[in-house]
Every structure is written in C-alpha cells, then in structure tokens.
Design a protein that fits this description.
This protein is of the alpha/beta class and 217 residues long. It has 2 domains: 138 residues, 3-Layer(aba) Sandwich (Rossmann fold), CATH 3.40.50.1360; 65 residues, ACT domain (Alpha-Beta Plaits), CATH 3.30.70.260. 30% of the residues lie in helices and 27% in strands. It is built from 7 helices and 13 strands. It has a 6-stranded mixed beta sheet. Strand 12 and strand 13 form a beta hairpin. Helix 1 packs across helix 2. It is globular, with a radius of gyration of 17 Å. The structure holds ribose-5-phosphate (R5P). Ribose-5-phosphate (R5P) binds next to helix 2 and helix 5. GO terms for molecular function: ribose-5-phosphate isomerase activity.
Length: 217
C-alpha cells in the first residue's frame, strides 16, 4: 500500500462521521482531496460546505457541492482536514499547503474536528516538520527576528502568497515541548496572523491509516 492508498483509507474512514444534509467543513491538502473525491463518489448529499481554501472550494464546486461563507453557516457540526504532523494528544502541525489560517478558523467554528492522516504523520513530539507561520508581508523580517529569539530558524516560503494575501515563514528546529504555550507566544508577535500549531484547539479525533487498519486517537 503506497502513501496515496493510505491517504484514501484515512479519508474513507472519515466518511463514517459525515451526516447527510448537514453543513460540512472541509480542509485542504492531498488527503482532504481524497476525502472530497470520496464524498462525490459515494454520492453523499450535503446541505452545503464551508471551505478552508480557494483550492478546496473549487474542487467541491467541481463535484457539484454548494460552498457557503462561514458567516452564513454559523457553527459547523463537523470539520474534516489533514495535517502535516500529529502527536498522541491530537495536537497538530498544519499549513504545509499554506491554508493554516482559514483551517484554524474552520476548526474553531466546528463542533467536531476529525483529522485524517497516514501513519507517517504520527510523531512522538511535534516539530520535525517546520512550523508554518502566516505573516503580514511588511512584518516578515521583524517576525523572522523574533522567531530566531524563540530558538527557531525561519525560512521564507518564496513564491507563495496565502489566500489572505500574506506570506509564510517555515520555522525549523523549534522546541515544541509545550505546544499550547508556543502557539500562544508566536500568535502574540505583531505581524503574525497565525501559526500552524493546533494545540489550543486540537483535533477531536485523529484517524491514522496503516496498511492493515485505521487507528483512532
Ligand atoms: O495547509 C495545508 C494543510 O494544513 C494540510 O492539511 C496539510 O498540509 C496536510 O496536507 P496533506 O494531506 O497534503 O499532507
């Protein structure tokens, strides 16, 4: 079973959480793309979707799903999304696809957040994957200097503009022993829109695809 098969298995497992004719929050990335395609393949009817990115919005519309604004939707019963890393406490790193801010908003608005990953994403401690930080463009250097003071090595993700018109710094070598404290600390830096730690609002369930089974955290 290759990585794509595992992503599809995780996505398939998430279908069990979807109730027809409700509003569904949908994340971003290759695992979530499998999930979107499966929703359509299985003919699952939804009242509407709330999307965490322009790319996901397009894919949902291509499959015939209605996409509405979060302001119109209110609370979302279920939000399904992938992650770049998860630990055993369901704390995540997200933002490898630069969609972290809208993803964090969707997760905050969701009654239940189900995260779907293949087994390679489960780590003993977050931080091997560089932490994405979305930054207002004029604050890029200022924020980078502050991130160095926090022990990180920020790298500007060249050529990438987020759906919100901002830039991304990928921060290597951070000590993420206390993910909640670090999430708060980085978010407090002037110029930071948000960072890719999902510790203050972790996933409610993480579905981990392995070749022979799905493990649920
Ligand atoms: O910004 C992107 C998101 O946080 C994705 O959920 C994350 O990067 C995982 O993506 P993939 O499923 O492609 O590994």
């Amino acid at each position: 079973m290759n990585a794509n098969d595992l992503k599809r298995q995780a996505a398939l497992a998430a279908l069990a959480y979807v109730e027809e004719d409700t509003i569904l929050g949908v994340g971003t990335g290759s695992t979530t793309n499998c999930f979107i395609d499966l929703l359509a393949e299985k003919g699952i009817r939804l009242k509407a979707c709330v999307s965490s990115s322009k790319a996901t919005e397009q894919r949902l519309r291509d499959h015939g799903y209605e996409v509405i604004d979060l302001n119109q939707a209110g609370t979302i019963p279920l939000y399904v999304d992938g992650a770049d890393e998860t630990d055993a406490k369901r704390q995540l790193i997200k933002g490898g696809g630069a969609a972290l801010t809208r993803e964090k908003i969707c997760a905050a608005a969701a009654q239940q957040f189900v995260c779907i990953v293949d087994q390679s994403k489960l780590v003993p401690q977050l931080g091997k994957f560089p932490l994405p930080v979305e930054v207002i463009p004029m604050a890029r250097s200022l924020v980078a200097r502050e991130l160095v003071k926090l022990g990180g090595d920020p790298v500007y993700r060249e050529g990438v503009t987020t759906d919100n018109g901002n830039v991304i710094l990928d921060v290597w070598h951070l000590d993420i022993t206390d993910a909640k404290a670090l999430e708060q600390k980085i978010n407090n830096l002037p110029g930071v829109v948000t960072n890719g730690l999902f510790a203050l609002r972790p996933a409610d369930r993480v579905l981990i695809a392995r070749p022979d089974r799905i493990d649920t955290l």
